[in-house]
Specification:
Elements lengths: L1 E10 L8 E8 L2 E6 L8 E6 L4 E2 L3 E3 L8 H4 L2 H5 L2 E6 L14 H13 L11 H11 L4 E7 H9 L8 H16 L4 E5 L10 H8 L9 E4 L7 H15 L3 E3 L13 H13 L4 E3 L8 E2 L13 H9 L2 H12 L9 H5 L5 E4 L18 E3 L8
Parallel strand pairs: 1-4, 1-5, 6-7, 7-8, 8-9, 9-10, 10-11, 11-12
Antiparallel strand pairs: 1-2, 2-3, 13-15, 14-15
Helix pairs in contact: 5-6, 7-8
Length: 380
């Protein structure tokens, strides 16, 4: 006897074929039959009349920052949208491995505007431990994890803006390999975000090369999607070509007025990479506004001493003058200068941490701080 039969459905089977009216049979939690008969002759414990609604495989959220929120909400909002799989550890930010003394609290504070300020019992160190914690929490979705470049760098160097020594680099690389051995699906970086942005190409290349024996992808938010876009894409493709590893580009787009009308050039670069044998896939979100942490409008050096150091710079008149000059005069080559790129008038603070920071007449709306940038940024 089958467990469930879904009758009278518009079936989308996930192969790319057109939908058809039919039914789906589930036995022992697994789809056992897909039929073009709307009411099949099947003996089932439960019969569900879909009433001509769409029945399809669950959606995969290929770029999610639910790494900590899943312990709070168990991802119920995603389930209600039909999402059954999430890929975490994006943009170089994974919650494991985490072995740095005091690192869990510091890392959570660093990323709380992105991953939420969740009261979670951080019991894990390794990727395997983190995945076990996810299972123990009863999360109803399938969850995959990428090892974050920023995470392994933070484990070894903290937020320091410097190159690793040979010994430190080897420690970082071993953390990547350990995560892959523990079941991570790949390795990610976010080269617009600290501490990833402190890494030179050689560091990225050597760490990404650890993927080679596993055949798993290097997933990247590249160094720039605006003024320095073409150099950033070339760097990314060359890393994949030299290491012989699959690549996945987060947020395939062009940003800022300087690049308007050049999407065809970006797509041509993707096709050229494939023509040279690089296994490259891309993703894109279909709207012109995006969301990220407000702190990204600050130059990279402002973040080098962690959140407390950032606050000190913001309260220091000399540092503020330096920040202003870096932004307005584009003094840092290769830095994704969001304020100047999109125009300050296009930045909207959509959420703040406290009542004190809320705009007059508005209420505090949770524990996340984000900005929305028309035509630029990342989807959350």
């Amino acid at each position: 006897m089958s467990d469930v039969v879904f009758e009278r459905a518009r079936v989308v089977d996930g192969t790319g074929a057109p939908w058809f009216r039919g039914s789906v049979v589930v036995r022992d939690g697994v789809v056992s039959a897909v039929s073009r008969e709307s009411t099949p002759d099947v003996d089932a414990s439960v019969t569900v009349d879909v009433d001509d609604r769409v029945l399809c495989p669950g959606f995969v959220d290929t770029h999610s920052h639910s790494d900590l929120m899943l312990f709070d909400s168990l991802l119920e909002p995603k389930v209600r949208q039909g999402i059954t799989t999430e890929i975490l550890g994006q943009d170089g930010f994974s919650m494991a491995p985490m072995y740095r003394d005091g690192g869990a609290d510091e890392w959570q504070r660093q990323l709380r505007a992105l991953d939420g300020d969740v009261n979670v019992d951080w019991t894990w160190g390794s990727v395997a431990d983190y995945l076990d914690a996810v299972d123990a929490a009863g999360v109803p979705l399938n969850v995959g994890l990428l090892v974050g470049h920023g995470t392994v760098r933070f484990n070894v160097l903290g937020m320091a803006d410097r190159d690793p020594t040979d010994a430190e680099f080897e420690e970082m690389a071993e953390l990547v390999t350990e995560g892959l051995e523990d079941g991570a699906l790949g390795f990610s970086t976010g080269l617009i975000y600290t501490p990833c942005t402190y890494a030179n190409r050689a560091e990225v290349q050597r760490l990404a090369a650890r993927l080679g024996p596993y055949g798993r992808p290097f997933v990247a938010h590249v160094r720039s999607e605006g003024r320095w876009l073409w150099d950033a894409l070339d760097e990314f493709v060359d890393v994949g070509a030299e290491a012989g590893i699959p690549l996945h580009l987060s947020h395939c787009k062009v940003a800022g007025t300087q690049q308007q009308g050049k999407a065809d050039r970006a797509l041509a670069l993707v096709e050229a990479a494939r023509d040279r044998g690089v296994d490259l896939t891309v993703e894109q979100y279909p709207y012109t506004a995006a969301s990220t942490m407000l702190s990204v409008v600050l130059p990279p050096w402002v973040h080098a001493d962690g959140p407390d150091g950032t606050i000190e710079h913001l309260t220091d008149e000399q540092s503020r003058d330096r920040i202003h000059a870096d932004v307005e005069r584009w003094r840092i080559d290769g830095w994704e200068n969001f304020g100047a790129l999109t125009g300050w008038e296009n930045l909207v603070v959509s959420n703040v941490e406290s009542e004190a920071n809320a705009a007059p007449g508005e209420e505090h709306r949770g524990d996340r701080r984000r900005t929305r940038r028309p035509g630029h940024g990342r989807s959350l």
